Amino acid sequence: MAIRDILIWPDPRLMKLSKPVELQDGKPPDDVKTLIKDMFLTMYDAEGIGLAAPQLGVLQRVVVLDIRAYEREQADGKVEVPSGETPIALINPVFSEKSGKLEWEEGCLSVPGETGMVTRAAKCRVDYVDVDGLPQFIEAEGLKAVALQHECDHLEGKLFVDYLSPLKKGVIKRKMLRLIERNADEAAE
Ligand SMILES: [Zn+2]
Description:
Helices cover 31% and strands 24% of the residues. The protein is of the alpha+beta class.
């Protein structure tokens, strides 16, 4: 297990379509199980609430989510672990229902320090396969619904910046290109 590097947008690998995980005898292969462990480690290290495999350069349809930190913040410390559903790992997630509209100021570990308003479905249901290869589903609203849609977008090669105006997207892109350059300079030193 290891913390892996998170790709920074506009890395071209973030704009690619991810492939479905092929189950072997009804189970996810070992490399996918390792990937999921690494995704959780990497997400927690970066203090994120969700992460998709392509953000680590792995073009497979895998997403992890843990919104408990956000829920604790919202509950102002009054509720210890409000959600029984996260942390959750979703393999081959598919939306089977979406309804309503919700605006949320989103951020992304692949676009550090930047946020933007995005309109998503207010409620959704996602069908997926769990780490044991069993079919499951999750019904979500609020941040959980937003996060699921944001993370599943990554599997289509789409990021929240794609919903912003060309002007705002361009400003963020220039900042990220400078950040990528700085990171490369630091790595070379
Ligand atoms: Zn993201």
